Structures
1.
Amino acid sequence: DAGITQSPRHKVTETGTPVTLRCHQTENHRYMYWYRQDPGHGLRLIHYSYGVKDTDKGEVSDGYSVSRSKTEDFLLTLESATSSQTSVYFCAISESLGTSSSYEQYFGPGTRLTVT
Amino acid sequence: AQSVTQLDSQVPVFEEAPVELRCNYSSSVSVYLFWYVQYPNQGLQLLLKYLSGSTLVKGINGFEAEFNKSQTSFHLRKPSVHISDTAEYFCAVTGGGADGLTFGKGTHLIIQP
């Protein structure tokens, strides 16, 4: 695996509580992404970052926020978790555009989140 | 914007038989295409990619795929599958921007002994 870790790997939380998931990379890649994976939906993009403090929304961003204060860390926050946010969350990283590995994404091991 | 359609949610095949997993995409711009594999309870691993050049691309574990622009397809093939190929396979596309990959819903490859 590329140097990507996610924490926690598993979490059970109650509806209405805040939750923060962390993605940490040691590759110094510029681009970072958060996806959620649900049966029958494949992976859907939540938010992405194209540099420190530069983030943008993806396809399913409602109910989620992100922050990136350092190149190596990308945080995903559920301000008030709902049962519909029960999912497996994957972080991915990508090198700068225009390189030989352009657009290829490397994925972390995932975080399984259950909201009860 | 791009979209990806994986036509089969499940593909059962006997061990040592050939397999083809189908992927079609739509896009108004030039695309870059990928196949990823996900083994149970793991993250996604890149199998192969098409960026430009030869339309037949070879990947890891004996897989290959052919980019067909006129049919907007990028089907994945393997001439002889093994039990260890049992996994979920995802086709993905990007138009080249920073906004990530668009994935298909996945195809579960089931290898029968």
2.
Amino acid sequence: QKEVEQDPGPLSVPEGAIVSLNCTYSNSAFQYFMWYRQYSRKGPELLMYTYSSGNKEDGRFTAQVDKSSKYISLFIRDSQPSDSATYLCAMSGGGGAQKLVFGQGTRLTINP
Amino acid sequence: ETGVTQTPRHLVMGMTNKKSLKCEQHLGHNAMYWYKQSAKKPLELMFVYNFKEQTENNSVPSRFSPECPNSSHLFLHLHTLQPEDSALYLCASSQELARTGELFFGEGSRLTVL
């Protein structure tokens, strides 16, 4: 069993839709949860960061962590074509960035 | 120049060639990383340097040889590669070994091994 599971997609939705991206994990020691966004031919960039459980909102983006279910989500409201990218979840137990475990990424396309 | 810069952006090499990838960061960070990104696979950590000292080598074959002359520069020397080494190689930096996991990535070097 992989430590982090992420559906690779691809996922295609119309502009304005609410998008839900998800990851599950098996290591109960994970405390730091991140979402990275990677545009085509670019490197990943940190989009959202959450410590432990709960929700975090930043503009149209909401990150949600449910540690009891070992499940994290990223919601995108009023999706735009510029949101088209690959979204990578990543998490760690706090041993430093070198202990980050990444999901394989979900490729998202927002159609105008 | 800002952020993390990687050169070359694209590289094609034969299995007997020797080449190097270069990474430079302008963020004042002290930790630098090499990752391998293959299609439909998670990012694979290869090497970590903190204050120029290697702190992690994730069982990477010896045909990949890292070099970190200072906290701003990182190299990946390539020798006698295999076709399965074709991938996007990403360099990243962080403020020391960032507890939060915030990494700043370059745009990557796309390597093709013939």
